[in-house]
Amino acid sequence: MPEATPVDRGTPILQLDQVVRSFGGVRAVDGCSFSIDRGSLTALIGPNGAGKSTVVNLVAGALKPDAGSIVYGGVDITGVVSHRIAGRGLIRTFQLSREFARMTVLENLVVVARGQSGESLFNALLRPRLCRREDRVLVERAIDVLDRFGLAAQRDMYAGDLSGGQKRLVELARAVMSEPELLILDEPMAGVNPALIDLLGGHIESLCRNGITVVMVEHNLEIVERICDHVVVMALGRTLATGVMSDLRSNSEVVRAYLGERLDEPTVR
Amino acid sequence: MSPILVYLATLVVYFFIYNIFGFGLNIQFGYAGILDFAFITFMAVGGYLYGAAALPHETPGSQIYYVLGLSWSFPLALLLGILGAGAVGALVGLIALKRLRSDYLAIVTLASGTLIYGVIGNFTRLFDGWEGLMGVPQPFTGALNLNANTFVLFFVLVSGVIMAILWFFANRLYRSPLGRAMRAVREDIDVAEAYGKNAFKLRMTAMVIGCIYAGIGGALTIAFITALAPAGWSTGETFVIWALLLIGGRGNNLGAVVGSFLVAVLFTEATRYLPAIGGNPNLIPDLRNIVIGVLLIVTLRFRPQGLVPEPKTNFFAVPLTSRVLRRVRHEEVVGA
Ligand SMILES: Nc1ncnc2c1ncn2[C@@H]1O[C@H](COP(=O)(O)OP(=O)(O)O)[C@@H](O)[C@H]1O
Ligand SMILES: [Mg+2]
């Protein structure tokens, strides 16, 4: 893990303004606006179909918005293609685990490191020693990351052969390997057991402590309350409220729309 | 010289050329996941351009028409074949690879291949249409004073050296960060993009390199057999190359070699010279395609990764304990 970098906590790193996206007749995102502070750990919550995944896709460039603007790090990235946005340090994960199945766990990590000079055709074919030298550094770093996520023993397995929980860990480890500035996690804990939820939660907290701004889409309000400092609530494609968890509890609209029925149940899934 | 020896040498040349096709399709499909159903078209582009450049100027009144006719030497004509195949590959890639879905890609490549087939067949002035190019001079025969038999032996050397070089670079590409990024695109194009990989550029690179391999194989083919006509590169021939790659093992160049030996040499070329059974000359070619088809189905059912599957990348085989050991040693030295 790199030394905790000093960040200008409090200044916005991501701003959405009146973002709209429809699929046919469905306005999946319907004028969504919110802002994410640098260095924060923000939860994006809301009932199923609220448009959370669509917002993640819009921000990451996987989808283009019909209207509105998205500003990241002071630069307008509305409609920019996803690999360019990722190149600027905005990395997202997907709601379902999507590992590179027929590549080893170690390779899954090494491949996502940004700025590899061996990805140019010239270097790939004619400068193998340069490639190997860079790879060695990346492999060492990847092994460190895997160590930290308790995946050292699995590093030479095909990622496709891992258990569901391990895939979730690889997903997070891979995101760390790409050294993001802003990391957006779409339901990183979906479908994993309670022990692993705590483990993943701990990892996500420590990423944030080390200077990565994290936004996570999550249903589990218990874990949200424990680790997130900010919350954005979405419903019907709009931002319903933003703030800290305790404020939101007293917001009757939010409670009615989303929290009410759920907070009574001990299992908030 | 014994005819058996010449016959075997001929098979070896075919084997080497099919290896090159196998590597090319492997770079496209095995590395980058591109469903290229027009592969043989790029072989033809390379072959025709080589042939038309190597042939002398067309003789008026001969009823054989072709462009160029430059009497170029082997290396120059080969270079033209490479550039042409690469350029046509880039053009097809520009249309096919913009969209992400692979079924779309398959259809576009198939359509492009059919289109080019029709153009070359019908525009007789280009490469003598359905008749095809004939009488392409065999390279080196004059300079090295080769006869028809020694030419075959010499061509084993030429095609073997070129094949070895292409195998070497295909493997180097596979292991490089570029090849690794191509495989990430193959595995999941959206995720690769989400991690900053330019999937279009990566697939375009694989597409063009694969087409260049096809073009080199095509140039070697026409230089060796001195003729090339549309009947020799119908869509069915693309199927033979697909079959050899899938049976041998996609993602593994050694698999392409094993597949090309089984499919292209044993079943396709070696059976070409069997006597016709029961006076029916089509029986053996038809049986051959049935056998290849059955072999393909059996492979996909029982050994989907092919006979020689893609190997796991084992970076430096860093043993788990070495890091720990190094850390301990470091602590001893530093005295921490
Ligand atoms: N690709 C798509 N095509 C059509 N409709 C979609 C698509 N993606 C999402 N939707 C619709 O948009 C709405 C929001 O979906 P989504 O963003 O996945 O919500 P959430 O992640 O909050 O559960 C849903 O009604 C969903 O059916
Ligand atoms: Mg979702």
CATH topology of chain B: ABC transporter involved in vitamin B12 uptake, BtuC
Major sheet summary line of chain B: none
* CATH architecture group name of the domain at 1-98 and 181-196 and 213-269 in chain A: 3-Layer(aba) Sandwich
- What is the 3D shape of chain A? globular
Percentage of residues in DSSP E strands of chain A: 15-25%
Q: What is the end-to-end distance of chain B?
A: 77 Å
Architecture blueprint of SSEs:
The complex is a heterodimer of chains A (269) and B (336).
Chain A: E1 12-23, E2 26-37, E3 41-45, H1 52-60, E4 67-72, E5 75-76, H2 82-87, E6 90-92, H3 105-110, H4 121-126, H5 128-148, H6 164-177, E7 182-186, H7 194-209, E8 213-217, H8 221-227, E9 230-235, E10 238-243, H9 245-249, H10 252-263
Parallel strand pairs in A: 3-8, 3-9, 6-7, 7-8
Antiparallel strand pairs in A: 1-2, 1-4, 4-5, 9-10
Helix pairs in contact in A: 5-6, 6-7
Chain B: H1 3-31, H2 39-54, H3 74-96, H4 102-122, H5 124-127, H6 141-144, H7 148-175, H8 177-187, H9 189-194, H10 199-225, H11 235-248, H12 253-272, H13 283-302, H14 320-334
Helix pairs in contact in B: 1-7, 1-10, 1-11, 1-12, 2-3, 2-10, 3-4, 3-10, 7-8, 8-10, 11-12, 11-13, 12-13
The structure holds adenosine-5'-diphosphate and magnesium ion (MG).
What does this structure look like?
The complex is a heterodimer of chains A (269) and B (336). Chain A has helices at residues 52-60, 82-87, 105-110, 121-126, 128-148, 164-177, 194-209, 221-227, 245-249, 252-263; strands at residues 12-23, 26-37, 41-45, 67-72, 75-76, 90-92, 182-186, 213-217, 230-235, 238-243. Chain A starts with 11 loop residues before the first strand and ends in a 6-residue tail after the last helix. In chain A, strand 9 (230-235) and strand 10 form a beta hairpin. In chain A, 38% of the residues lie in helices and 23% in strands. Chain A has 269 residues and is an alpha/beta fold. In chain A, the strands form two sheets. A six-stranded mixed β-sheet of chain A has the order 6-7-8-3-9-10, with helices on both faces. Chain A has a four-stranded antiparallel β-sheet with strand order 2-1-4-5, with helices on one face. Chain B has one domain: ABC transporter involved in vitamin B12 uptake, BtuC (Orthogonal Bundle), CATH 1.10.3470. With 336 residues, chain B is mainly α. In chain B, helix 1 (3-31) crosses helix 11, helix 1 packs across helix 12 (253-272) and helix 2 (39-54) runs antiparallel to helix 3 (74-96). Chain B has helices at 3-31, 39-54, 74-96, 102-122, 124-127, 141-144, 148-175, 177-187, 189-194, 199-225, 235-248, 253-272, 283-302, 320-334. Classes of the chains: A alpha/beta (269), B mainly alpha (336). The interface between A and B is large, with 46 and 33 residues. Adenosine-5'-diphosphate (ADP) binds next to strand 2 and helix 1 of chain A.
